[in-house]
Each structure stands twice: as C-alpha cells, then as structure tokens.
C-alpha cells in the first residue's frame, strides 16, 4: 500500500495530462522531434491513451496520458491513473494545464492506483512513482488517498481476519496514530446498555463477541460518525443463499468508511470535535441466535419485532445512534452497507443519502460533483412510516412487501438518530476493475462529505 508522493530530487520526468481540446497547446510545448513523434503516433489524448516520448538517444524522456473529451471525462473517473502501470520505472512529475479539479483528480487517481493489497498474495506495485505535484494541495490528496486505502484494506480483508475484535484493533490503530481515545463496551455491559447490538452478535463464536467501539478526538463543532460493523453476515436464521453470502465480508463497509474518513479528518487536523461509533458484530447462526418473531427492546426504549434476522444492520445502528443522541452530537452521519434496494435504485457507484438538513442536502451533491464521488438524495417519505409499525411492537425491522426498502430502512434509523442527521447507504465494493478502482473494496460518498464539512457543521 502507498498513499504518498515520491520525492523527486529534481530528477523526475514529466507526465503530461492532456485533453483533446488541450492537445494543440501541449504539442507546442514539445521540441520539433518530439512533436513530430507525437503526431506520427497519432496521439489524440483519448481516455487512458498513453504516449511515451523519446529523447535524442531513444530513451523515454517524457510521457503523456489522455483524459478524453468532456463526455468521456463525465463517464469515467480517474482516467489519468491508467498511465501508471504503463510508465517505465522511475519518478514522474504530473505536468498539465488542467483546471484544479481535474489536476487534483489526476493526482489522487495516481496515488490510489499505486495501492496494492498484498496481505495474502504478492502484488507488485507499479515501478513508476509520482512526485509531489504542483498546483494542488498535495498534503490533502495524500490524506484522502490514505483514507481510501484504509477503507479498501479493511473491506478486502476476509472475515476470518476481520472479526469484531480485529475491527476494534483497527480502530485503536487509527486512534493511536492521531492521539484519539477509544472506549469499548462488551459483555454484560453491552447486553445491558445496547441490547440490539448484543442480540445480533451473541451467536458468534469464542473471541468474536459483539462490542460497541467509541472513538473521540479534537475540539470544535461536533461531528459524529456511525458505521455499521457487521463483520460477516450469514443472514442469521433467515440464512442467505450461498450467492448472496459470498460478499458478506464487506458488510462492515460502513465501519470501514467512518474509520477512513476519521483518519483523513485527523490527518488534516480539521478543527472539529469528532466522535466515531461502530457497533461491531458477526451475524452468525448458533443456539443463542436471535429468531424471526422475537421482540427486542432497544437502548432508546422502543421495542422492535424481528421479522427478518437478515435485516440486522439497522438494529445495531439503532443502538449506536441512540447513544449519539444522548450527548451533543452536532451533525450525525451514518454509513452502512444497508439495503439491496439502494443498489437496485442507483447501482454500485452512487451513494444514496437521506437527510432533513437542507444545507447538507444542497452541499453534498455539489461537493460530490467537485471531487468525482457521486451521491444522490433520496427522501424520508413520511407516508411510509406506517410500514415500519407492525402493531405487536413499536417497530418492524423488515416490512413485508419489499417496496421502498432503502427508504423504510432509513426511516427506521431516523427514529433513533439525533435531530441533525444524514444516512448514506453505500455498497462498499467495486464489481469491475477501472483506473484507480480495482475490483474489491471501495469507498463511496465519504470524500464528498469531507469536502463539504466546513460549510455544514
């Protein structure tokens, strides 16, 4: 894994990032032999197109990578990162006449493309390295790349090595790096104070018991992040099919998101009071497993009828959100791989979000467009409140009928959340490899939130 720019020592070769509309200006920068070479190679600055430019001896002296036209740039993120695997060994300096947003995306994409997950198999890093670029906030880009790398590493790690205790260890490692504090509630105290978290996680094996992780750092306007930490989801007694269970190591993706975002906030020393709450559980099957039809009492008080043990994420988040609401949480944001309905609605790339905060509702999509981290607002549709009210208990964790699954889940969470609240229903996985976005764990929506935080806290 790498999330830092290389030191050039003055010897970096230039890597030009070129759009078709900027191609004529780029060609004028080249000396006549290099210009003739580029024209002879018919370099058109298409998306991901790479041109290696020789010097008089024939050695590679510079390179160019195309971004494609405006339509291509709108359809494909981090295109410039495609060059990294095709550049010769050495240090390269991004040189471009791009606008700041395109330049920042190119630099971030290069760092993310250099990341390798090599815990279980050799994964050689690219031989080319990118020097600290000019004209962008390089320190911020490094912090964001490190946050994304952490998210991906946590999600990519299989459940055998990423149970509740391992997730706690990861949170402690992040906290120790920046002087944050961590408190963990487990055992009898968890059963007493967080009954929904305990109920979901109590069937797990020895050493994999449920817990509530509580991290605190900094001072200033308050931000509370709550992340779903279901380290593996069998579906419980409503057992998932094998096909549906195959990716359930990623069901702690919400926890990974809030840890990656928290790491970035602390690295950037943002002036805010940060709290991170992670209910960490494994939804397993054994004798003590909670059952369909059980009625559970929540930390906040309302009872919940369990009509599907595979709708466990909203249960553990409910207790964590209730804890947040007991203090002075400021803006509270939850991240969770919560519903298949969200994926049906917007696919894997887009993070749907719910909020009653109109300022955030305007700012988040604007930031998402700026940093190329797409989000889409969905409604807290009040008439659907009746769908989560079963009659025999205060709330239903899995309304029958299957309609509006993402909305009813968000409405359920809102019953427990503080007043200033937003929820992001993320996928946490990239199903198809793309530049800077290999197949596997992936962050979504958190970079957009980071960008707009100063204006919404």
UniProtKB/TrEMBL annotation:
UniProt domain Cytosol aminopeptidase: residue ranges: 308-315
Molecular function GO labels: manganese ion binding; metalloaminopeptidase activity
Region forming the signal peptide: none
Biological process, per Gene Ontology: proteolysis
InterPro entries in the record: Leucine_aapep/pepB, Macro_dom-like, Peptidase_M17_C, Peptidase_M17_N_1
Keyword Cell cycle: no
SUPFAM superfamilies: Zn-dependent exopeptidases
Gene Ontology CC terms: cytoplasm
Keyword terms: Aminopeptidase, Hydrolase, Manganese, Protease
Entry similarity comment: Belongs to the peptidase M17 family.
Protein name (Swiss-Prot/TrEMBL): Leucyl aminopeptidase
């Amino acid at each position: 894994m790498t999330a830092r720019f290389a030191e050039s020592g003055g010897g970096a070769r230039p890597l030009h990032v070129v759009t078709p509309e900027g191609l004529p200006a780029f060609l004028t920068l080249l000396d006549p032999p290099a210009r003739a070479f580029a024209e002879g190679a018919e370099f058109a600055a298409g998306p991901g197109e790479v041109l290696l430019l020789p010097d008089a001896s024939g050695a590679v002296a510079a390179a160019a990578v195309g971004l494609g036209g405006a339509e291509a740039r709108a359809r494909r993120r981090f295109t410039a990162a495609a060059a990294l695997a095709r550049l010769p060994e050495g240090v390269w300096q991004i040189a471009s006449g791009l606008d700041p947003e395109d330049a920042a995306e190119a630099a971030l994409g290069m760092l993310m493309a250099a990341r390798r997950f090599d815990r279980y198999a050799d994964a050689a890093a690219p031989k080319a390295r990118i020097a600290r670029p000019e004209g962008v906030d390089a320190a911020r880009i490094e912090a964001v790349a490190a946050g994304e790398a952490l998210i991906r590493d946590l999600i990519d790690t299989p459940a055998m090595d990423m149970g509740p205790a391992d997730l706690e260890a990861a949170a402690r490692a992040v906290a120790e790096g920046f002087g944050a504090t961590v408190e963990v509630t487990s055992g009898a105290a968890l059963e007493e104070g967080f009954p929904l978290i305990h109920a979901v996680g109590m069937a797990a094996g020895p050493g994999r018991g449920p817990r509530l992780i509580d991290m605190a750092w900094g001072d200033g306007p308050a931000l509370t992040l709550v992340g779903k930490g279901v380290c593996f989801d069998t579906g419980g007694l409503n057992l998932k099919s094998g096909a549906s269970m195959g990716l359930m190591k990623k069901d702690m993706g919400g926890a990974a998101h809030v840890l990656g975002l928290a790491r970035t906030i602390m690295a950037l020393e943002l002036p805010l009071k940060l709290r991170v709450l992670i209910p960490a559980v494994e939804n397993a099957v054994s004798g003590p497993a909670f059952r369909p039809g059980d009625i559970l009492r929540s930390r906040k008080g309302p009872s919940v009828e369990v009509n599907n043990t595979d709708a466990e994420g909203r249960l553990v988040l409910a207790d964590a959100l209730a804890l947040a609401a007991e203090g002075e949480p400021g803006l509270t944001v939850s991240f969770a791989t919560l519903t298949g309905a969200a994926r049906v609605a917007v696919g894997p790339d887009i993070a749907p979000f719910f909020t009653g905060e109109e300022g955030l509702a305007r700012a988040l999509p604007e930031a998402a467009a700026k940093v190329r981290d797409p989000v889409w607002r969905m409604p807290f549709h009040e008439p659907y409140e009746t769908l989560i009210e079963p009659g025999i208990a205060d709330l239903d964790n899995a309304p029958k009928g299957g309609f509006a699954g993402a909305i009813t889940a968000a409405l359920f969470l809102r019953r427990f959340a503080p007043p200033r609240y937003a929820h992001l229903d993320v996928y946490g996985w990239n199903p198809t490899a793309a530049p800077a976005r290999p197949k596997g764990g992936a962050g979504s929506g958190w970079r957009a939130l980071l960008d707009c935080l100063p204006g919404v806290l």
